[in-house]
Amino acid sequence: MPQIEDRVQRSFSRSFSSYHAAADQQVRIADLLVHQLRNNGAPRYFASALELGCGTGHLTKRLQDGFSFGLLTLNDLAPEARQTAHAASARFLGGDARQVAWPERPQLIASASMIQWLRDPLDLLRKAATALAPGGWLAVSGFGPDQYCELTRLGSSAGAPGLCRAADLAAAVRHELKVVATGETHHRARFDSPRDVLDHMRKTGVNGQARQTWTKTRLAQFCADYTRMFQDQAGLPLTYHAVWFIARKCG
């Protein structure tokens, strides 16, 4: 059976052209991370910065708008990320973030909406804490255990394997970093039909772990169950549970 990383990479590669416009929840999270960095005293200039899981560039653009960089290195598992406009002024580092060679002692490591796809996201955070230069900043978001709770209740396997609470993310780096801000938010996206929910997931590539085959009967049952269990006056919800933290390494 293929490794989850292989399935995720193929899923995001297939959805790469549609992801940017469809990932409105990920835009919210990228905005939040940059806002929290600035509000908690991060400098406006970083000599060296590393973004893990840059994707189509939602966080990249906001980092470039809010800060200036001597060298910005962008990493992503999907090779298509190299072609984004935001990568033109940066160095691209393709491949698994756990295995590629990071730049030495970056002053900023940032990542939005990626670490939940790792089986052990806390291990990557500990690596980032160690890699940072003294005085460096770490800004990371992922998704928590309530992510896609509607799908979980229906028995879906689409959820990411590394869903963690914000407190768990922060605890992983406290031995080396000072956590200056942390939080989590629940937001319910709304759709007109269960098929729209599935279409949204396809466009954003977040069904990379799903292994079910959609027969006509299975699809009809899914639509009936989703509507029966979750429909309200505002439509059909899909829960996003964002978790995040900002930390700094003592200089």
Task: Give keywords.
251 residues, alpha/beta, 24% strand, elongated
Supply the helix-strand structural class.
alpha/beta
Uncertain segments are none
Q: How much β-strand is present in the residues?
A: 15-25%
Order of strands in the sheet with the most strands? Answer: 3-2-1-4-5-7-6
Radius of gyration: 18 Å
Shape field: elongated
Query: Could you tell me how far the N terminus lies from the C terminus, measured between alpha carbons in angstroms?
Result: 45 Å
Topology, number of strands? 7
Sequence of secondary-structure elements: HHHEHEEEHEHHEHHE
Draw up the topology in text:
Blueprint: H1 4-14, H2 16-22, H3 24-39, E1 45-52, H4 58-66, E2 68-76, E3 91-94, E4 108-111, H5 121-131, E5 137-143, H6 149-153, H7 166-171, E6 177-191, H8 194-204, H9 216-230, E7 236-249
Parallel strand pairs: 1-2, 1-4, 2-3, 4-5
Antiparallel strand pairs: 5-7, 6-7
Helix pairs in contact: 3-4
